[in-house]
Amino acid sequence: MANDMNTQDDQALADEWAAALEEAGDGQDDIDALLAADAATSPSSRLPMEEFGSVPKNNGPVTLDGPNLDVILDIPVSISMEVGSTDINIRNLLQLNQGSVIELDRLAGEPLDVLVNGTLIAHGEVVVVNEKFGIRLTDVISPSERIKKLR
After folding, report:
1. What pLDDT digit, counting tens, does each position of 87-134 carry?
2. What's the rounded Cα separation, in Å, for the pair 100 and 95?
3. pTM for the model
4. How many Å apart are CA 63 and CA 103, to the nearest integer?
5. What does the alpha-carbon distance between residue 30 and residue 67 come to, in Å, rounded to a whole number?
6. CB 120 within 8 A of CB 114
7. Which burial class, exposed, middle or buried, applies to 114 when counting CB atoms under 10 A from its CB (0-12, 13-18, 19+)?
8. Coil, strand, or helix at residue 135?
9. What are φ and ψ of residue 84, in 5° steps?
């Protein structure tokens, strides 16, 4: 008897699904009709599809003006100053101790690099302000040049 109930419930559920699918129709015809109507009314309003990985088009000079800039102004970024760099093998790295000197690739008095999230944005010189180190920017890379380096 319980088996009869399950079969009846299954059949009722199957009938409901069949009725719903029949009511909805194929659906592809509706989609095709909408696409054809859209193409007929405004064929020139569609933009061509671009391939993934293609280089973005340069639509003119880069500016900082625009309504979307306010959205990103409060995002925190990491700023760092790089005195210089060098490559060292692990054997020499493990031998470093207090008082060791590492020769860098910069000359004394040469400007430091100012990096924001690892991207060079300026050069500067070290200054002391209220007994703390600071940096005075001597050369700032233009926003358009920074964006070009990102591409």
Report:
1. 999 999 999 999 999 998 888 888 999 988 888 899 999 899 899 988
2. 9
3. 0.47
4. 40
5. 38
6. yes
7. buried
8. strand
9. 175, 180
